[in-house]
Amino acid sequence: MTEFSDKKKYEILAKLSLIALYLVFGINVALAAVAYFIQGNVYMESGPDTVLIRNIFIVLALLELAALQFIKNVLLSRVPRITDAEDIPYHQLLSITYVIAGMCVSIAVYGFIIVLLGGNYDFMLLFVAISLIGFQLFRLRKKDLDKLGT
Question: How far apart, in Å, are the Cα atoms of 104 and each of 53, 81, 119?
Answer without folding.
Answer: 19, 27, 21
